[in-house]
Amino acid sequence: MNNFKPPHPNFRTVYSGISRRKFIKYGALALGTGAIASCSGAPSETTSVSPSASASPAEEKILNVLAFSGYEEPGMLEPFEAATGIKVNLKIHDGSDDEMIALIKTSPAGTWDIMTPTSAYIPALAKEGVLMELNPSDYPLDSYLPPFDQWSTCFEGGKMYGLLNRFGYYGITYDSTKLQASEVESLDVLMDPKLQGKIALFDWFLPNMGVVAKWLGFNPPYQLTADQLAQVKEKLFALRPQVGLIGSTAQTTQALASGDFWVAIAGEFIQAGLAVEGKPFLASVPKEGGVTWDQAVIVLGNSPRPQNAVKFLQYVAGAEFQAKLAVARTYYSMVPNQDAAALLTNDQRKLLNLEDVTNFQQKFLANLSPRERPDNIDEWSAIWEEFKSL
Amino acid sequence: MSNLSLRASRYSGQQQGYSWHSVFAGLGIVPVVAYLLLFYLVPLVYLLAASFRVATGSGIEFAPGWTWQNYQEILSNQAAWVTYGRSLGISFATVGLSILCAYPVAYTLVFVLPKRYRQTALLLVIAPFWTSFVVRAFAWQLLLADSGLFNRILTALSLPGVEILYTHIATVLGFTVFGTMLITLNLCAVMEAISPNLLAASADLGAKRWHTFTDVIFPLSTPGLLIGSVLLFIFVFGDYVVPTLLGGGIRTVLAQAMVGAITTHFNIPRAATYATIMLITILAITLPVLSLAGRGLNSKDSYRN
Fold first, then answer.
1. Tell me, what DSSP letter sits at residue B161?
2. pTM of the complete model
3. A5 to chain B nearest CA, in Å?
């Protein structure tokens, strides 16, 4: 028996030996399942209608908008379409600013009219001549909270190119059943041994590293010397054992909601939604400060429908739209039009730090630095990628 | 009958020289070749070419000239090697674990279960994979979280809880569920094809069930095992979703480094370099395995025809 050596099979003969029907059956099953697995792994996009690049001199009653999520929610754009008769072809962008800008730049001229990048990207785009100049008097900037009416990154060379319509901050979001308010007064709490593996970070290097720069006392946090950036790297890497997750907004929010994670470097965009659902999360700006995030609306320079675009910007700068955007299901955000605050409920105003709009700048923004785009951004992102690989 | 002879004469005519028929039939291959060129070769050449360029500004435009810079930067970066090793480790662990899980399942389906139940049982193995991959990953999050079902059961049994979610143990588990199904299907295909004459002969020669397994079934099932393993390796080595959703975005794998190159600042050349490194690794591992699966001929009698 031990001498019995079965012939070793050969792949080709095995599969030729198998009946064709059987092979097709199993092959289709395997491939089909693999295809389902890989296809459904692709990032999803909430898309309504694909944009059209055609235009007529009289301006077609359409507008092609590429925006971060929130704009697609029910009731957001319908009033604009009803009032102007302009059909908005909205595409929601799930990725980063860099990907959004790459998408715009690789699309044929005139494909897009509007996009909503972080304002930090506006000056460079304006210098490249990609953006249409805006006339400040077209928009209700008088109703905007200072300093958002003159937000520096919306301007280039004294000309206005962007209109801020959403912002927030990165500070400390924490589980109030696990940490006291007094404990989170300083960013030093992040090194507390009891927080080992309990910190969740939003996967975007600029805000997280900006907060670390503030922690080290570097102000402004995005204009660092090589030595200062090395110190940021060292501090960030020291934080690594405390971090249990680096994820998307949804992933970070869910991790906190589950109770398994206690702290995130984040503000209301993660905390407010949790609080509304009755989760015991609070957010605060530590004494070292934090950084802001924002989104601005811009018009592409080659937009074939500039008049429609201006109407759209007027709409999204208005109180009615911003009040809806502030409490969008996707995430909560602060909004610059102070009349929008009046349209929110007391609880919503409290949640979004918009109770005292007259002293907002002095009280709330004093310790927050605008999120910028450093010139040596490649070095920053390389540090972040290495941090994630640790 | 006349129809047959007509067909025969047509074919014999074809052998004598080119005919319009054969030219016309030859044209049929054009769409296939065009498809392959357009959707495989062109992107592949672009990918390889891009990896030898350097991004400027927004990352869409490339600086003039060709360079090894991306390869030099990645290969001299210790963190990149750690990432690479992690990808390999996760892939091998998944393949190993999947084989351990899949083999008993496939064996039971083909040799133990009565044939009339086989289709239903196979369907049960496959059915969970008709749901979205992402949905399944999220479901695993709920099971594996510190406060998830798995830990609640441990707690109920007065056992200490374990932190699995957002570690690569969770990544390997997530992949293994898929891998078990994939390898089971491949194994079933070859096992079903093993000639019953061999099993009968083995029994006639006095082999016990175990010896029939080690000397007949297992050797004859290795091609299915190897093909399934290669398919699984390719999938796991390149996947971004499971390490992100279950591994937690930390201790990154190669696919995450590649996606990071795009999302952080749209560096196409850097991403292309990672992709090329992945491609070379996959070829270096799969080609020898496939040739192993194809070695040792003369097995025609071992399988049903």
1. P
2. 0.82
3. 7
